[in-house]
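Take the subject:
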Amino acid sequence: MPKAAFSLVEFFQVVSILGSALTAFKLYTSGLFRRYRIFFIYFVFRVPYMIPFLLLSNTSTAYLNLFLVTEPLIMLFYVLVVLEVYGLVLERYRGIYTLGRWVMYVAVAVSATISTLSVLQKITPSTPLPSARVFTEFAVERGICTALVIFILLIVWFLSRYPVPLSRNVLVHTGIYSVFFLANSLGLIVTNFSGYRVSQNVNLFLMGISSACAVAWWLGLSAKGEETQAHTLSLRPGTEERILHQLDALNATLLRVSKIR
């Protein structure tokens, strides 16, 4: 890759680190870290996690080993943050949330298992151990990301169909995280299935999106935004009341079912 491209990669990495640090600091000083706990912990972790990747050569053994060790943690954070976002969106509908949470657990487990089994069939005794580890880890990640992408899209679909009142922060956070996660998942899929040159160019573009999201979180989340209520969808009063009544009825039914079990 040309030298200018390397400089751009470093620029995006620095912006992501600074944006993540500023976001974590803002969440802490504003008290929002109590409401966005997993997201806050992830960003506190993200800052020291990204610094070594900025300093190490991406062709070094240390870089590869660090990636293999830390990437499972990143995947765990992805699952937990998506679950937290889902919980914030359905904070008033715990019955629907409980059902969706178990659906997500099952979907992630099944998708990761199928993806892993498809790769294990291609790994032979002659495959070098580092390569086998990379292939297996990428397969697990691809399966997890596929399930979470579908789940994120379902959250976005839900917000586009139902006029659920949410705080401005939740709407901003959901929107930015959807872009952030979908971009990272796309990068992982492209890296798995495309050539080196294509994946490098795509990853550079996605790093730009990731750094922009880090800055957007810093600028978009605020203590005041937690108090400002917003609707995801504007409907006529009668229509809105009818849809919300149906949602309340479904939620109450699921709560009763969960208590019986």
Remarks:
- Residues 129-161 form the longest helix (33 residues).
